[in-house]
RNA sequence: GGAGAGUUGGCUGAGCGGUCAAAAGCAGCAGACUGUAAAUCUGCCGGGCCACGCCCUACGGAGGUUCGAAUCCUCCACUCUCCA
């Protein structure tokens, strides 16, 4: 690849690239670049939203650069204020380390295990000490910190901002100083933090890093950014069937963004596919199934992808019970037991009230038969087995012993 | 340091001393319609009880006034505003 081709490849899908000329001159030196990406160890599960940036990291790896997966175990104690309306709760040391382990286990589904370097920023931030922190804070001004939209908005809305939150961008910027990063990647919401890194590097007499941001992926609701805390995410550790179902539930419109950010298709190929769907020559559901399979192939296997599709067809298109149903064993009894209690006991509803509602609303089937009486009872003598379906997707086989 | 405003269910946000398990919106769940899509419509949306009624927990925390408090009083915690 020529340098210009490399630039195009690395910039593919990016929102900001500051400065492109800097990246070019860095590449021209012919030495592997140090590419830093920070991950906050607050979310124990890597989801599709994270993979957007990770995919970009892989691009750098493919071109022979040194990619550092930085786990913000120190900054995690601060809690990134980005996009937050309220102060985040601080994590304990134990929680952070446990989360970090989960990260390590999962990142290699996307990144090259051989060359990915995993670091923890407590390594240098912890060593900084109070004095170092104060010195670091001296390099930035309040006005500049308040330029940041999140802070300004909270400030103007008279919402609390704790002082330690102001340190977050500085700490993150200092990571770049410590690692002498050539490039830092992040979501567009990270732009401010990444730029602070540039400023700080200049302050410390280093060449400023290149900042490259990727679009944020909306979650299943199609509106909010995909995040663990909002529960609108697809985790890469999830079962193939779960992933398939979740992908199918996104809107047709959103599907294209997923195609662009979560597959290796080029923008041109996605555009072409979209044109086929819009002209009616390709059914949107088929396009979405292909998307779901592509994603499952990445995190599981081609076989798992095919199996997930077959299972999906079986359950939802043909409305049959899944091939594999979780079996729950409950204690048998001589007296008939209320169905609602059995549903709760089997873990298909959060509470008896909840189960009662589901039954009343016609969302419960016992052995393929809809039950709509909340007083319905089942014979629970030993050896009895029932197939319960609650809502559209919750199944369980209950056996009494 | 001084003066004032506020803290309500996952979120936003109403709330007269009784009729408040608490308006409304969002989110969520179920049903209808579908392509388990989206949009739309309908219902539900603290928990317990083989109950259509009763009980428990809940309106920042702890006390108090009252037959009765989310609503009044006191103290504590937290947040915001203005002044210094």
What do these coordinates show?
The chain has 401 residues and is α/β, with parallel strands linked by helices. Helix content is 47%, strand content 14%. It has 17 helices and 13 strands. The longest helix has 17 residues, at 163-179. The chain is globular and about 80 Å long. 33% of the residues are buried. Mean pLDDT is 84; it is low at 83-89. The chain binds one RNA strand of 84 nucleotides through residues 85, 158-160, 221-222, 230-231, 245, 248-255, 283-286, 288, 312, 315-317, 336-338, 340-341, 351-354, 357-358, 360-364, 374-375, 377, 390-393.
Briefly characterize the structure.
The chain has 17 helices and 13 strands. It is of the alpha/beta class.
Rg over CA atoms: 25 Å
Output the number of helix runs. Answer: 17
Spans with pLDDT under 50 lasting ≥5 residues?
83-89
Largest sheet: 6 strands, mixed
Order of helices and strands: HEHEHEHHEHHHHEHEHHHHHEEHHEEEEE
Give the topology.
Elements: H1 3-11, E1 16-18, H2 20-28, E2 34-39, H3 48-62, E3 66-71, H4 75-78, H5 93-107, E4 117-120, H6 122-137, H7 142-145, H8 149-156, H9 163-179, E5 183-187, H10 191-203, E6 210-214, H11 240-248, H12 252-262, H13 267-278, H14 284-299, H15 302-317, E7 327-330, E8 337-338, H16 339-345, H17 352-360, E9 364-366, E10 369-370, E11 377-378, E12 385-390, E13 394-400
Helix pairs in contact: 6-9, 9-10, 11-14, 11-15, 12-14, 14-15, 16-17
The protein binds one RNA strand of 84 nucleotides through helix 12, helix 14, helix 15, strand 8 and helix 17.
């Amino acid at each position: 690849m020529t340098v210009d081709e490399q630039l195009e490849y690395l910039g593919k899908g990016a929102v900001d690239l500051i400065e492109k000329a800097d990246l070019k001159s860095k590449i021209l030196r012919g030495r592997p670049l140090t590419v830093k990406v920070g991950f906050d160890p607050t979310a124990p599960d890597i989801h599709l939203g994270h993979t957007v940036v990770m995919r970009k990291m892989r691009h750098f790896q493919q071109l022979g650069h040194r990619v550092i997966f930085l786990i913000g175990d120190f900054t995690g104690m601060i809690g990134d204020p980005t996009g937050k309306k309220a102060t985040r709760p601080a994590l304990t040391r134990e929680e952070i380390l446990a989360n970090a382990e989960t990260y390590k286990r999962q990142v290699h589904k996307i990144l090259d295990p051989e060359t990915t370097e995993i670091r923890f920023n407590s390594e240098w931030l912890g060593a900084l000490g109070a004095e170092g922190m104060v010195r670091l804070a001296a390099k930035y001004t309040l006005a500049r910190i308040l330029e940041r939209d999140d802070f300004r908005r909270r400030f103007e809305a008279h919402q609390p901002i704790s002082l330690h939150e102001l340190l977050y961008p500085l700490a993150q910027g200092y990571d770049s100083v410590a690692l002498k990063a050539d490039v830092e990647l992040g979501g567009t919401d990270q732009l401010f933090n990444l730029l602070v890194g540039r400023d700080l590097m200049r302050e410390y007499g280093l060449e400023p890093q290149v900042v490259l941001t990727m679009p944020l992926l909306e979650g299943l609701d199609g509106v909010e950014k995909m995040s663990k805390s909002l529960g609108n995410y697809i985790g890469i550790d999830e079962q193939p069937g779960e992933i398939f179902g979740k992908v199918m539930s996104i809107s047709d419109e959103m599907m294209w963004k997923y195609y662009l950010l979560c597959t290796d298709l080029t923008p041109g190929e996605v555009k072409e596919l979209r044109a086929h769907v819009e002209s009616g020559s390709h059914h949107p559901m088929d396009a979405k199934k292909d998307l779901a399979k592509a994603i499952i192939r990445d995190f599981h296997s081609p076989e798992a992808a095919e199996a997930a599709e077959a299972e999906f067809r079986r359950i939802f298109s043909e409305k049959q019970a899944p091939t594999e149903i979780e079996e729950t064993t409950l204690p048998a009894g001589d007296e008939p037991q209320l169905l609602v209690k059995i549903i709760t006991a089997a873990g298909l509803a959060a509470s008896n009230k909840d189960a009662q509602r589901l039954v009343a609303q016609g969302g419960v089937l016992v052995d393929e038969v809809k039950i709509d009486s909340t007083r319905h009872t089942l014979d629970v003598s030993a050896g009895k087995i029932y197939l319960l379906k609650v809502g559209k997707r919750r199944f369980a086989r209950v056996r009494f012993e």
